[in-house]
Specification:
The chain is 49% helix and 10% strand. The protein has 12 helices and 10 strands. The two termini are 14 Å apart.
Length: 350
């Protein structure tokens, strides 16, 4: 995996030898050493603007972001392309088409309650037990960066009833599926995602789930891969910066969820002409909505259904890892951040 490295350092800990350079645009901000001052200036100076280099509207003003998230004419997928072209007619595309978070309208209204009910079934105690078991299982055999992604996925797999013998394969399948639905995925990555989609759907169907429920079962694990990995990784970094001394893990994670969150932006697409913040958005145009710091878990119909679960997994994993070894031993120095357009996941020297 490519890693964006910065030979620089700021209050959040990367060591600098040169003045900090602002992100070129909003999709570079999540992997920047410290984008938060830039976000603040952006909200004040250009709360909504069109970014020609991206061909997208950027919405950063908090009130406008809230309006956009509640606007029914702004959809999670381009109206003309509900499933990415590269995935159409493939097993991965069939799963993608049934994901609640990738749908609006009648499908979303019908199936979102099932997703919310599924999330509500997991008690805090059950989530904590699953996260602790995952951390204890994986810590001795994964490097620091693999650990960040594997713990949340394995914890969700345990909650979903995956047998112990199938946990490693399931984590790998979720990783392959996630790589395959990423924008610009290679043909090889999509092929691996197809294999993973078939295997993961079979798991759900063996448990008696319908197609949409089996697909959204995958989504619980897939969304944990980046979002909870970023939350856990940024919490680890926060503890490192405080000297690796004892801190209450739940408080650290809750603070990091807003001060240095995992998910920085989300996309929307105009289904018809509309006005937002005095600007005319044409049908078909795309928007990037900046979620930090006010709405790191989203808002409205597509607010994250797993916020409570993500916070619990990250806090328990952090607490467990601290009990196993000093974090400074498990996680080396910060090298940068994964080059993702919407998620902030640190990369540690291992």
């Amino acid at each position: 995996m490519l890693i964006k490295l910065f030979p620089l350092a700021n209050p959040r800990g990367v060591i600098h030898t040169a003045p900090m350079v602002d992100p070129h645009h909003v999709l570079e901000a999540p992997s920047h050493p410290d984008p938060y001052g830039w976000y603040t200036r952006l909200r004040v100076s250009r709360p909504i603007h069109f970014e020609p280099s991206l061909g997208l509207w950027v919405v950063s003003g908090p009130y406008l972001v809230q309006q956009a998230l509640a606007q029914p004419l702004l959809r999670v997928r381009p109206p003309a392309e509900p499933v990415p072209r590269a995935l159409q007619g493939r097993p991965t595309g069939e799963v993608f088409a049934q994901l609640v978070r990738m749908n609006d309208g009648a499908f979303h209204a019908r199936h979102r309650p099932d997703v919310d009910a599924a999330a509500a079934r997991f008690s805090d105690g059950a989530v904590a037990l699953a996260a602790e078991a995952a951390a204890r299982d994986l810590a001795p055999r994964k490097d620091a960066n693999a650990l960040l992604s594997a713990i949340p996925v394995q914890a969700m797999a345990r909650l979903l009833g995956v047998a112990a013998a199938d946990l490693d394969r399931t984590v790998e399948w979720v990783h392959d599926f996630t790589q395959g639905i990423a924008a610009g995925a290679s043909a090889e990555a999509i092929g691996r995602a197809d294999t993973a989609a078939l295997a993961l759907m079979e798991q759900g169907e063996r448990a008696g789930l319908s197609g949409p429920r089996a697909a959204n079962r995958i989504a619980f694990m897939q969304q944990a891969l980046d979002a909870t990995a970023g939350l856990l990784g940024n919490a680890v970094r926060a503890v490192q910066l405080q000297g690796d001394t004892a801190h209450e893990a739940g408080e650290v994670v809750a603070r990091v969820a807003h001060a240095d969150p995992a998910v920085h932006n989300t996309r929307r697409f105009a289904a018809a002409d509309l006005e937002l913040g005095g600007e005319r958005i044409a049908a078909g145009q795309g928007l990037v909505l900046v979620l930090v710091p006010e709405t790191p878990f989203g808002h409205g119909a597509h607010a994250c259904p797993g916020e409570r679960i993500a916070l619990q997994i990250a806090a328990t994993a952090l607490r467990t890892l601290q009990s196993l070894a000093p974090l400074s031993r498990t996680f080396g120095a910060l090298r940068g951040y994964r080059p993702l357009p919407n998620a902030r996941i640190p990369v540690f020297a291992t």
